[in-house]
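G.,

No rush on this.
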Amino acid sequence: MVVKAMFSGLKHVFKRRMTVKYPNQRLKLTERYRGRHILDISECTSCQLCSKTCPTKAITMVPLVEKPLNEEPPEKPLNEEAPKKKKREEVYSQISYELCVFCGLCVDSCPKSALTMTHSFELSDYDRKNLVYTPEQLSEIPSEEEGRYVTVFTKSGVSHHAD
């Protein structure tokens, strides 16, 4: 019995190890790996399809917090009537990564490919509030210095971004 257990242990000494020493070594991810999202605010049409197709309701639509400084509302003459057609409110994706299952349905449903995914997977945090990414945070591309992958997937193919 003891010899059988020793033989079993010795058999595994010469096999290749499957673990990696994570911060120092990294696994090579496949091209189709789905990580953190990137939002191209200039391409987004505020159609809200991404939030409607999200199975876990991790995506909510919110207006931008930071508005450009040069943009001031135009002044209306006092005698002019208000337009009868309502302008669509510009809202953008806000993703809660505590709910997101990285299924990619939001990316597939985006008609302008404004929402894409990267290889970035280091999203953990000690505070739940930091897991909610605003549109401003989603529009930033993760840098390579942070140890995150910056490969961006689009419907037309894979593109690589560098800071």
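When you get to it, here's the other one too:
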Amino acid sequence: MIIKILCSILIVLSSSIIGYLYSFRYLQRLQQLKDLYISFQLLETEITYVATPLVIAMEKIGSQSNQSIHQIFKDVHKILSKRIGYSVDEAWNQAIENNFNRTALTQEDKEILIDFGKNLGRTDQENQMKNFKWIYLQLQKHQQNADELKNKNGKLCKSMGILAGLAIVIILI
């Protein structure tokens, strides 16, 4: 009898943890979008107001950014500083591709990041500022969407984890 109770508790606990882990992914995405927003603000300041060369700006932003997304900026810096012949766009895309699986970002988030990189370092200062305004608007929209998903699906995942564990226990008993 004690073994049944312990196994039941273990099953419910395990499924609950799985539900919480799934819900945590929604929270991670929201936080990473906020981190990207702040990092782009820092990058804009470095490029437009301080007039830091892009390679050095990427290094600075990589060291100042949050842990979840800093590697994107560091990789762009590494690729561009090797002077192998990559354009900024190619370096940006490669950095996004290399680090995308380490994030909680969605495919839509990836697409706006790639679109941002297409104009990075190619145009004059006025168009660079327009590019930053565009990415800010896109990130704000994605943050709102991520917040709604976190509130809606986060609770759902937690509840489903607990309920799935209870259902398994009921079936086994």
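Residues 2-172 form one domain. The two ends are 11 Å apart (CA to CA).

Enjoy the weekend,
O.
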